[in-house]
Amino acid sequence: MKALVYGGPGLKSWTDAPDPVILNPTDAIVQVDTTTICGTDLHILKGDVPAVQVGRILGHEGVGTITEVGASVTNFAVGDRVIISCIKSCGHCTNCAVSLYSHCLGDEGQSGIGWIFGHLIDGTQAEYVRVPYADNSLHKLPEGVPDAEAVMLSDILPTGFEIGVQYGQVKPGDVVAVIGAGPVGLSAIATAGLYGAATVIAIDLDENRLQQAREFGGTETVLSGAADWKQQVLALTDGAGVDVAIEAVGIPITFSMATEIVRPGGHVANVGVHGKPVELHLEELWIQNINVSMGLVNTNTTPMLLKLVAQKKIPAEKLATHHFTFNQMLDAYETFGRAAETKALKVVVTRS
Ligand code: NAD
Ligand code: ZN
Fold first, then answer.
1. Are 113 and 253 contained in the same domain?
2. Which long-range contacts (CB under 8 A, 24 or more apart) does 308-314 make?
3. Is the same domain home to 208 and 290?
4. pTM summary value
């Protein structure tokens, strides 16, 4: 088969790779029909994720068709169309039992971590992928949900919702600020309304991303390059600050920004993946009674989000801005890598 293979920092190729085979009775083999690229893949290619070995097939998002199931897979059969969750979950370890799939202890990848595709085992930017613990790591794709929408459920929609909106404890009437209106921030913006957010402020350096934010339910936008960005945000509250500040960039400055605009008793929900240490000013925050949360997506809300996507209650289709076929995988990377110029949100890559 063909696959996107990591060749070390700065190196990748769309090349021949061995077809995956069933290794454990809980595995399934899925023919990948649609995949996409994540900012995390770009981080890996920069060499920021040393656990990824040379020769690894990248990708942790995908929609496909099951071609083979292991002997103990009971929920799925050959021919089923499925969404591949970016997190594998065995479904019965102590962490899976409390829906903390991000820390599934099932021994794939030997890490006690849920994110293994395109990280510790071969991923979804390939014609075929082996899915461990298929019964709990795949979701049946209902009729009528196009692949380009379904693939947003592998990672970004649950990430924005779980680690942004749910961990941030958004409640009815809240003023929610989302710093970073990339695919993940937009997913938080698109789902903040599920818990009744009244005002959703998108904050970004990029005008285009702010315009996009309005399409996803952002009610206000603030250009964070502006000298008075903070005053603009506070003016949209009662002056005391936002109830929930969601950080969806992953750099020190945006985490600080979140702590600067949150009201006493409010929540800072960090979603961004940080590559560098971040200062946490406990000496200032303690007396503000600020709650800070963070985490790796669990994808335990994917079935619920899938229902909302199917009902057109979440505009997943708007995340798919650019379309490619598998043999254009490198062009897809190029377009995604220059998102500020190409205005790409998610690039959708399909089999044909
Ligand atoms: P992205 O790079 O596409 O979007 C980031 C956005 O932040 C861009 O629109 C950019 O213009 C904006 N930005 C950059 N600097 C800024 C600043 N100083 N002020 C305001 N905005 C600024 O990324 P994405 O794909 O949307 O992902 C966002 C983050 O979420 C990344 O760090 C990613 O690794 C992380 N992530 C976390 C999880 C998780 O489980 N926690 C899962 C997936 C992704
Ligand atoms: Zn588990």
1. no
2. 308/194, 309/145, 309/149, 309/150, 309/152, 309/153, 309/157, 310/142, 310/144, 310/145, 314/157, 314/190, 314/191
3. yes
4. 0.97
